[in-house]
Specification:
single chain, about 240 residues, mainly alpha, two-stranded antiparallel ribbon, 2 strands
Length: about 240
């Protein structure tokens, strides 16, 4: 087979895989990236956005920016929720899933999960340094943080991790209702983690929105990579 004919076969193989879900995913990816770039402009502004300040203050007792709203136990509960997006918890989850897939003889899937989350962590750290937005000083911080504020690493990495794992789970779970439940659960946990960062006063709301957009876009990008017909593109490689 000549090189030209093989390239034509590859193009036909890729085009045959372009389905409605992939087209919708592409539109969603474009929307998430556009939203993220708009939020970057807000983060780089010399003064905080008015909506950022109003939402942040809405989580504090009026006239007392050091006192969060709600009963005394809520602050501890929010700290527990925010831990679901911490590096240590996500590393434990990813390590457990990675080992499971290795034991199940699915080394490719194990590598896929590791690369998706690890690259997301690198990207998050790079963006924090690139934008260099300081943490909000409008309210007191209810959790200790030392890194830059934009984007929220908790929001981004929880989106990458939980949405990636949720998407993988839907490939083996029976029934549409069960698959929808798992995906909704992944989204719910991601949203709760992000909201907890604003409640604790360690992020502007736009930081969290940017983290969600970036995390969603990154997880969706890896989902699209997983949809490529690797075995048909590389028929001699049976380990993909």
């Amino acid at each position: 087979m000549t090189r030209g004919s093989r390239m034509k076969r590859i193009r036909r193989s890729i085009l045959s895989r372009i389905e409605l879900p992939i087209l919708l995913a592409g539109l969603a990816l474009a929307g998430a990236l556009w939203s993220f770039m708009e939020l970057v402009e807000i983060a780089r502004a010399s003064t905080p956005h008015d909506l950022d300040m109003r939402v942040l203050l809405a989580f504090r007792v009026e006239g007392h920016p050091d006192t969060p709203i709600g009963p005394p136990w809520l602050e501890d509960a929010v700290r527990d929720i925010t831990a679901l997006g911490s590096v240590s918890v996500l590393v434990l989850i990813v390590a457990a899933v990675f080992i499971y897939f290795l034991l199940a003889g699915q080394g490719g899937t194990a590598l896929f999960v590791f690369l998706a989350v690890a690259s997301g962590q690198i990207l998050s750290s790079w963006m924090k340094v690139g934008v260099s937005r300081p943490r909000p000083e409008l309210v007191s911080h209810l959790a200790a943080e030392t890194s830059m504020s934009f984007p929220s690493g908790h929001a981004m990495l929880s989106a990458v991790t939980y949405l990636t794992l949720g998407a993988l789970a839907t490939r083996v779970l029976p029934g549409r209702v069960t698959r929808a439940y798992v995906l909704l659960l992944a989204v719910f946990v991601t949203l709760m983690v992000g909201a907890s960062r604003v409640y604790l006063g360690v992020h502007w709301p736009s930081d969290v929105l940017a983290g969600w957009c970036a995390g969603f876009a990154w997880a969706l990008s890896w989902w699209l990579v997983a949809r490529l017909p690797w075995r048909r593109l590389f028929p001699g490689d049976h380990n993909r």
